[in-house]
Design brief:
Order of helices and strands: HHHHHEEEHHHHEHHH
Number of helices: 12
Radius of gyration: 20 Å
Distance between the termini: 50 Å
CATH architecture: Orthogonal Bundle
CATH class: Mainly Alpha
Number of domains: 1
CATH topology: ABC transporter involved in vitamin B12 uptake, BtuC
Helix content: over 70%
Shape: globular
Strand content: under 5%
Length: 311
């Protein structure tokens, strides 16, 4: 028995360390990190876990599929994707988040659930359960051979996009006045308002930046999975939310690292597990989440128990 177990572990480690698996896992981690940044930014400023974030990605995917179905150029489809996601993000902030800003976190959480299911129902009525396919983006999913490793173009785009977006966001938060206001609001929203921080401007900025990141994720995921359905990106959003909690929701960097970590681990497990066992991937991932939280309830990438919550 021990020999058989050792053989299984050896095969698993060999597959996990395979260069192809590593590249795919890093690409998936980059996508999940982008999603984690968007979720963590809104939580940092508004103290709101936005469960409707996945539906923003879905809406962007449908915009790309709609443009592809009409035969429009890819660039037009991407512009339409960003426009749809940003309009929906701003609409959510104005119609839902602002009126409920003074309510309890539970009320705002339920509101995001309601928004998520509303958007999903609209997509179901408009596009049907089978959804639409964005065929014009297929070229971006073709691999480029580097030695024995095949790297899909969209994997390279995902890694570069994640690095650029994270760098620009860091500059915005640390070197601009709106970034300073967002950090102040994240530390203490009420006090920040007393010293002149405009609450509506700060919340709108956080929601719109998160919307830009959701649009980027929508493009990347639609290239990888061209068929967009009303449940598009739902599974990824749930996994990223778990990653944000694992990393540490109270700080943006730990939340981002948590998103990358859970994406990387999902990619490793998905590439190393036998095909017949792939249906157990969510069980393995969430089992690891439980173990991490039992050991580090404050977050895997936080130090101790932070007394001040901030971006």
């Amino acid at each position: 028995m021990s020999g058989a177990l050792a053989s299984v572990l050896t095969d698993f480690l060999g597959d996990a360390l395979d260069a192809q698996v590593q590249v795919d896992a890093i690409g998936l981690g980059a996508v999940f990190a982008l999603m984690a940044v968007g979720i963590g930014l809104v939580f940092g400023v508004l103290r709101l876990v936005n469960f409707a974030y996945g539906q923003l990605v879905m809406a962007g995917g449908f915009a790309l599929a709609f443009a592809s179905d009409r035969g429009w150029p890819v660039a037009v489809g991407i512009v339409l994707c960003f426009a749809v996601v940003l309009v929906l993000s701003l609409a959510m902030d104005v119609v839902v988040f602002r009126p409920l800003r003074g309510q309890s976190p539970a009320v705002m959480l339920i509101a995001t659930f309601a928004v998520a299911f509303l958007l999903q129902s609209i997509a179901l009525l408009w596009f049907g359960p089978l959804g639409k396919t964005a065929a014009s983006l297929a070229d971006l999913n073709r691999p480029v051979s580097v030695g024995d490793v095949e790297i899909r173009k969209i994997t390279i785009v995902a890694i570069v996009a994640a690095a650029i977006c994270l760098g620009l966001l860091a500059l915005l938060l640390n070197r601009t006045s709106i970034g300073l206001h967002m950090r102040a609001a994240a530390m203490d929203f009420q006090t920040a308002r007393l010293v002149g921080v405009r609450a509506n401007l700060v919340s709108a900025a956080a929601v719109l930046i998160a919307g830009v990141l959701a649009a980027v994720v929508a493009v990347i995921l639609t290239v990888q999975f061209p068929t967009v359905t009303p449940t598009f990106a739902l599974r990824e959003t749930i996994i990223v939310l778990a990653g944000v909690v694992v990393g540490g929701m109270n700080r943006l960097l730990p939340a981002t690292l948590g998103g990358f970590a859970i994406g990387y681990v999902s990619g490793i497990l998905g590439g190393a597990l036998p095909t017949a066992q792939s249906q157990y991937l969510p069980s393995f991932v969430f089992g690891l989440v439980i173990l991490v939280l039992l050991v580090r309830p404050a977050g895997l990438f936080t130090r101790g128990r932070p007394t001040v919550e901030r971006v």
